[in-house]
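Incident review: delayed structure delivery

Summary: a single-chain prediction request sat in the queue longer than the usual turnaround. Root cause was a stuck worker, restarted by the on-call engineer. No data loss occurred. The affected request and its eventual output are reproduced below so the record is complete for anyone auditing the incident later.

Affected input:
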Amino acid sequence: MRAGRPHHRWRSLALLAALLPAVVSHAQQKTPPSTFGQVVGNAVLCLDDIDNKSFYSYLLTAFGPAYKHEGGAYWFRTDAVLWGAPITDVIVSDDTSALVFMGVVADSTPEKLEPAIRAASGLPFGRLDYSKFPVRGSKPGSKIVYFRTKAKVYCAKYKPLPPAQTR
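Output delivered after worker restart:
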């Protein structure tokens, strides 16, 4: 064996170790399904019923396991686009709350996202308060709020009662 050869092996291993997080991260990001806009978009705009178990299964299949579970919700990372805005996260409620909800975090502000949603869906939003960071709401019940510097769009509804025979 030549004297310089082990040095090259260590350099190659160091290069692989440096690239591994990027490769793993890229492998974990999945392309959103073609149905994402219709399924998730309609849910967060309160245009469809929200069955958190079905949506959890849909998101698990589409994006892999949730990256966190907090605040009564499962959080999924995505590279999807809705209403022309990049969607960084999709959230779906667990069963610990009296509400079922579905939401998205958009890499946009509520001021920019609201007209884009209106243009794409025809759904108008009104200001529900006159604070510095007002909540915007639609007639079906969806809300657009600030989430740090981004916008969160969500639909939250009370869980239906179980059938009479199981109460």
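Verification: The helical segments are 5-28, 36-44, 52-63, 110-121.
Action items: add queue-age alerting; document worker restart procedure.
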